[in-house]
């Protein structure tokens, strides 16, 4: 059966030369109803291959519990690509980065205080093996050697940027082979000596990731891969955004020029991304280049690439298509018609329910001497609430959270007292305590575990303890709030303007003709939105993004339930659905 091979400076497939022109589309960032549309647009641009990561945390949300349905149905995604005549590159590394929560690793790994990540540590490898025993057999019938579209698979992801445990890398390689993966295996790293030395495996094809300076990158790769073809496994033709920054963009002409340099150097390429999509739910990750520089990623993963977050071709699509056509890569499919978008206009929230008044519906109380992080309590994502009492009287002291990950709202006798953010040492809360004492409540939001670099062991909540002044506080009641099921909430008519604490707001959107739309929350502060029970992500007025993408398949003809958890308060009861997005200023 057909096999992709890398010899004598080129790829061959079934014995014939093949130049790989690939684009990244992550199945977990696009609703399944749109997979065919995005893949057809890839082919219509002249591409012959699609690449995707595999998100472990999506597929094994709890140890031994597996999910391959709906947006997690990776087999369907690969089969759809194959039906369109596309090759598929799969990157199933335990770690994927991807600005995805914890780089794709499941949060429950961190319940083990002794866990070591991405190295030859038996407890970690035992979990990888158990996962691969379920995952890799799903790929076997989809391999090109079995008549399927998968032509290559990755061993680990940019490992040289993290470590140098070659025994670990070889263990992953052997694990793939022993489970029947007999297509081309590869690694991908930055084009530097340390990265390539740390991340490559003898006998396994090395590729590099970069956004520019093609000649330097390919020259460095050839020092380590003298006989193989050169390939940019991640051509960064756009970029991602953090909360509080500007929206990143890159000129289409510059992207086309760099692509042409690669083609002139006989290189193959995988565009990262071709279509970015959306960090639905609580799956957006974070970066942290230094201990106090936590940078959470926004909900949109538009990435400013060839297709927008909503799947529309951009200037880059046409510029890249023109370059590929000049090099013999003509469009292999018709460009689908644009997907319908509608401006449903303004609607009002008319029912509310306070979060604190819903705690018994949303969670069970856990009594503890000291605060625990989420992972120790079996929680992956969302919020966690800590409550205790402080006796009085006491003079004014600062409340010290040791340490908080990531953003805490502090309440004293249910009154909001301030915010403490791990990335901002200026966010402090101080108060005095009257003779009768006070109730202290701390609501901590997980803004996304670190997905890249040296600080990935990123437990969420309060990791050590809470001090009022110098004194540690004990005797806590803890509530885990993953907010993955809101069906038990009982909403009340009227406004909640005088209510302390975070509030759930509910509205009804009438949509006789469901279509893509974009939700604007002007006048709202920060929170999370659910559409018909589906978590479409976070909003925050600090930007850059000003709208949330609502794919049409999430809507139904008739009434649609919109639930908003507003953490700080809103100036209005209105929300608005427009037919165009706004991802914020670009400078």
Task: Provide an overview of this structure.
This protein is 17% helix and 31% strand. It is globular. 49% of the residues are buried. β7, α5 and β8 form a beta-alpha-beta unit. The strands form 7 sheets. The chain has an 8-stranded parallel β-barrel, surrounded by 6 helices. It is an alpha+beta fold and 587 residues long. It is built from 10 helices and 33 strands.
The helix content, as a percent range, equals 10-25%
The number of distinct β-strands equals 33
> Rg from C-alpha positions?
25 Å
Overall pLDDT score: 97
Largest sheet: 8 strands, parallel, barrel
Q: In which order are the strands of the major sheet placed?
A: 4-5-6-7-8-9-10-11
User: What are the segments in which pLDDT stays under 50 over at least 5 consecutive residues?
Assistant: none
Note the beta-strand portion: 25-35%
Quote the distance from N terminus to C terminus: 51 Å
- Tally of contiguous helical segments: 10
Structural class: alpha+beta
Shape: globular
């Amino acid at each position: 059966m057909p096999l992709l091979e890398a010899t004598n400076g080129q790829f061959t497939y079934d014995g014939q030369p093949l130049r790989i022109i690939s684009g990244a589309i992550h199945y977990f960032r696009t609703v399944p109803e749109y997979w065919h549309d995005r893949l057809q647009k890839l082919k219509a641009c002249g591409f012959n291959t699609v690449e995707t990561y595999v998100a472990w945390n999506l597929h094994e949300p709890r140890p031994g519990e597996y999910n391959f349905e709906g947006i997690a149905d990776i087999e369907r995604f690969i089969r759809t690509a194959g039906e369109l005549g596309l090759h598929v590159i799969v990157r199933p590394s335990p770690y994927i980065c991807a600005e995805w929560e914890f780089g794709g690793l499941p949060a429950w790994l961190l319940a083990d205080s002794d866990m070591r990540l991405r190295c030859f540590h038996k407890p970690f490898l035992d979990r990888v093996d158990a996962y691969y025993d379920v995952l890799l057999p799903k790929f076997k019938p989809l391999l090109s050697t079995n008549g399927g579209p998968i032509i290559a698979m990755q061993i680990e992801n940019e490992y040289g940027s993290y470590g140098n445990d070659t025994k670990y890398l070889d263990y992953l390689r052997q694990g793939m082979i022993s489970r029947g993966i007999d297509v081309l295996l590869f690694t991908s790293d930055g084009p530097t000596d340390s990265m390539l030395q740390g991340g490559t495996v003898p006998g396994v094809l090395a590729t590099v990731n970069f956004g520019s300076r093609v000649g330097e990158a390919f020259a460095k790769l050839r020092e380590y891969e003298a006989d193989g073809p050169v390939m940019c496994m991640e051509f960064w033709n756009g970029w991602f955004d953090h909360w509080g920054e500007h929206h990143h963009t890159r000129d289409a002409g510059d992207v086309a020029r760099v692509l042409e340099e690669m083609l002139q150097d006989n290189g193959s390429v995988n565009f990262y991304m071709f279509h970015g999509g959306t960090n639905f739910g609580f799956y957006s990750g974070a970066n942290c280049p230094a201990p106090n520089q936590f940078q959470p990623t926004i909900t949109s993963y538009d990435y400013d690439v060839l297709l927008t977050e909503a799947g529309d071709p951009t200037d880059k699509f046409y510029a890249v298509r023109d370059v590929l056509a000049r090099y013999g890569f003509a469009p292999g499919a018709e460009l689908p018609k644009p997907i319908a978008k509608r401006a449903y206009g303004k609607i009002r929230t008319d029912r509310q329910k306070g979060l604190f008044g819903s705690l018994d519906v949303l969670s069970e109380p856990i009594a503890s001497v000291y605060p625990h992080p989420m992972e120790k309590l079996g929680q992956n994502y969302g919020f966690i609430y800590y409550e205790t009492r402080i006796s009085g009287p006491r003079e004014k002291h600062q409340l010290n959270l040791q340490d908080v990950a990531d953003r805490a709202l502090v309440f004293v006798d249910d009154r909001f007292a301030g915010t403490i953010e791990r990335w901002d040492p200026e966010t402090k809360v101080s108060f005095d305590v009257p003779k009768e004492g006070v109730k202290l409540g701390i609501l901590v939001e997980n803004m996304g575990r670190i997905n890249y670099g040296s600080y990935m062991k990123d437990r969420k909540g309060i990791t050590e303890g809470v001090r009022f002044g110098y004194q540690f506080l004990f005797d806590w009641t803890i509530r885990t709030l993953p907010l993955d099921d809101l069906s038990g909430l009982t909403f009340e008519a009227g406004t909640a303007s005088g209510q302390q604490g975070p509030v759930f707001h509910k509205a009804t959107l009438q949509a006789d003709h469901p279509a893509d739309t974009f939700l604007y929350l002007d006048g709202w502060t920060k929170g999370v939105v659910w559409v018909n029970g589906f978590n479409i992500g976070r909003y925050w007025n600090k930007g850059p993004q000003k709208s949330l993408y609502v794919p049409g398949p999430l809507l139904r003809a008739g009434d649609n339930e919109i639930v908003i958890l507003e953490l700080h308060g809103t100036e209005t009861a209105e929300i608005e659905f427009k037919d165009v997005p706004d991802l914020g200023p670009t400078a």
